[in-house]
Amino acid sequence: MKITSIEPFILHVPVNVPSISDSTHTITHWGVVGVKIGTDNGLFGYGYTGTHAHLETDRLVTACIDKSYGPLLMGEDAQDGDRLWQKLARYPAIQWVGRAGVTHIALSAIDIALWDLRAKAANLPLWKLLGGATSEKLEAYNTDIGWLSVPKDKLIDGCKRAIEVDGFQRLKIKVGHANPMVDIERFEAVRKAVGPNVTIAIDANGKWDLPTAQRFCARAEPLDVFWLEEPMWYDDIASHATLAQSTSIPIALGEQVYTAETFNSFMDAKAVQYVQPDVTRVAGITEYIQVAHSAHARRLPVVAHVGDMGQVHVHLSYWHPGTTMLEYIPWIKDCFVEPIKVEGGHYVRPELPGAGTTLTESAIASFSQRC
Ligand code: 0YR
Ligand code: MG
Fold this sequence. Notes:
- The protein is an alpha/beta fold.
- It folds into two domains: 3-123 and 361-369, Enolase-like, N-terminal domain (Enolase-like, domain 1), CATH 3.30.390; 128-347, Alpha-Beta Barrel (TIM Barrel), CATH 3.20.20.120.
- It contains 13 helices and 15 strands.
- The strands form four sheets. A five-stranded parallel sheet has the order 7-8-9-10-11. Strands 5-4-1-15 form a four-stranded antiparallel sheet.
- InterPro entries: Enolase-like_C_sf (IPR036849), Enolase-like_N (IPR029017), Enolase_C-like (IPR029065), Mandel_Rmase/mucon_lact_enz_CS (IPR018110), Mandelate_racemase_C (IPR013342), Mandelate_racemase_N_dom (IPR013341), RHMD-like (IPR046945).
């Protein structure tokens, strides 16, 4: 299965309302930035990372795919997944400028495309190629109702609708106001509206410092918070370890962590309880597998962050024994030949061969930007 073509792409797909905000970002579009890799047996693999649709930065990713990694891949055998990952990830001149950041997420898109190719060549959905589904059902938790930009009354309506109409039993709402007591008030209102049986996680997207996070946790402890996600700066292992030791609320993080080694450092420091790798930020499925196994060996749950908006993670989550639930944000699903689907609060298991990443022609026609 010799690689014969490498075509980068950039899609900017509108989110389902004019814009959304968390504590740190306001976005109008999701960037689907990646590569279509062709082989001499006529198959095409698709892989991508997720961005905030900032075109100039998206072009750094596609330039890296095309100009830096492309020549290393052309003519190679796409079956040699681990060998190619090592060749690309450890290429001295590329690793010199980035063991994380642009070069790492560019590699992520390539690695996903290569897995998509191998699954298609095997005529199997990715979860089956990896070793089969270890869960009969995969629960979905809804993040799309809980943006910080949603006012309190709409937040409550959205949470109730997600439960009563759509069947979700798990929600996540954003926090991270400068005064964390505003977040307590919103959480209390949602808890009161949905009752005690729905789990509610919260996500601060890296906003607070340690004393603010501690003050928040002291007030939030009696409210049954399922997890507190990214309370503080993404790289600050020590502060997360201190917080985790000082509160009974479980700490979740990982969506901004680039490498398996950094995940290990967080876990070794007991700074995280819900491990949240993102296949679009670690260097693809190959590195995601390492992170997931490493967490599972410590008996920590793995709940992926959906930078891919779930297309690949639904496979990884059905497969991995440490995973029983997955985030749900349905912004880009209609761009794919086999879109993610949630019914009654559970993800439907995908069945088509591949990694779930094949784009439709109409998505490419509607949302493409010049690379
Ligand atoms: C907006 N999920 C998240 C959105 C979301 C972010 O930046 O991407 O809030 O991915 O934190 O857990
Ligand atoms: Mg998050």
